[in-house]
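Reminder to self: tokens first, then the designed residues, so the page reads top to bottom the way the pipeline ran.
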């Protein structure tokens, strides 16, 4: 067995791994808006579970399994970890995907892109996002920086994340004037957080853009374990400052349990139904998922076995799928 050292000086065994030959056979791939960008219906995000706080072997097992299942899109950002940057470094040690930034100045965006490319050890990303609308920086500057990323060859496509419907339309108009294609929006969206239905999905449709949702499981709340176990007994892989224990009120628990009854009747787990539900509108081309184990990943990919909803099912879901205040991003000045 040979021993290799990565650029941090950490020894690891050279482990020749070949991806499964049939990896594209069972995944569903969808077009983003009117663009040429094609994404798997389920994409994997590395917000938590892939920093230096988790065993490297488990991370690699989950990532390889995802790739073998046809997941070709992985979502990273310069601040994912913990610590910041470590998710990109770890991913760069085993694969090759695409990052994001925060704030909207030309300097911040383009230097964060360069830093991400260096950490990932790659020359370009498939999609580069403006992570948040920046109320201070002129939108022309932010979109201009996205244009520079495309023109320099460091990004193939560009998008925005958590922009309101109005700012999305403005960003798209600037991008059109600049001659670049703004193709994708990454919003939070789940059964307990439906803000995008109040204008954003229509704005995306009329702009010919598509969406990729994040926190579709409400950071893990929309899963069988919260419907069936006492919250105090649930062992999470990482503690999430973005999901304080107080989030889970009795009211939210009642919604989760109600939604599980609908999922049971569909023969799906709650996580599977939650993922299928965000994909029911074709404007949502893909949904990101988080996963800390291969078992979670497999369960979530199983959502693809039933993506259709009857009118009666949607009506039952609507009884419980009402705004629950679980989304921290909603409280930002942008939303
Ligand atoms: N653009 C933005 O501003 C933004 C913001 C947030 C997130 N994101 C992206 O979206 C991705 C997903 O976000 P998220 O982590 O909030 O997603 P999520 O899918 O809502 O939650 C993922 C967590 O739920 C739990 N889980 C997943 N599948 C499960 C299952 N089948 N059964 C039981 N528990 C399950 C796991 O918790 P345990 O780890 O405890 O097992 C997992 O870490 C991120 O990685 C990131 O790429 C983007």
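Designed residues (335 positions):
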């Amino acid at each position: 067995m040979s021993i290799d050292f990565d650029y941090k000086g950490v020894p690891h065994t050279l482990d020749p791994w070949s991806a499964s030959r049939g990896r594209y056979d069972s995944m569903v791939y969808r077009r983003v808006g009117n663009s040429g960008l094609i994404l798997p219906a389920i994409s994997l995000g590395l917000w938590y579970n892939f920093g230096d706080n988790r065993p490297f072997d488990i991370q690699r097992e989950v990532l390889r399994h995802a790739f073998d299942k046809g997941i070709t899109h992985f979502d990273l950002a310069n601040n994912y970890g913990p610590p910041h940057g470590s998710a990109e470094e770890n991913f760069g040690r085993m694969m090759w995907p695409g990052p994001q930034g925060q704030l909207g100045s030309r300097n911040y965006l383009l230097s964060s892109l360069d830093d991400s490319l260096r950490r990932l050890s790659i020359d370009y990303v498939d999609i580069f996002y403006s992570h948040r609308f920046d109320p201070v920086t002129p939108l022309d500057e932010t979109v201009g920086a996205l244009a520079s990323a495309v023109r320099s060859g460091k990004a193939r496509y560009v998008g925005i994340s958590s922009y309101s419907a109005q700012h999305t339309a403005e960003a798209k108009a600037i991008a059109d004037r600049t001659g670049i294609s703004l193709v994708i929006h990454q919003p939070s969206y789940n059964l307990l957080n439906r803000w995008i239905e109040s204008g954003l999905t229509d704005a995306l449709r009329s702009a010919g853009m598509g969406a990729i949702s994040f926190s579709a499981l409400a950071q893990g709340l929309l899963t069988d374990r919260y419907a069936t176990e006492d919250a105090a007994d649930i062992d999470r892989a990482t503690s999430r400052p973005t999901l304080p224990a107080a989030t889970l009120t009795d009211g939210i628990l009642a919604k989760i349990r109600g939604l599980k009854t609908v999922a049971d009747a569909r023969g799906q787990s709650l996580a599977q139904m939650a993922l299928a539900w965000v994909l029911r509108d074709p404007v949502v081309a893909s949904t990101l998922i988080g996963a800390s184990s291969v078992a979670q990943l497999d369960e979530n990919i199983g959502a693809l076995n039933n993506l259709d909803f009857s009118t009666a099912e949607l009506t039952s879901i609507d009884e419980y799928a009402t705004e629950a205040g679980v989304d921290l991003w909603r409280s930002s000045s942008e939303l």
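Residues 1-14, 97-102 have pLDDT under 50 and may be disordered.
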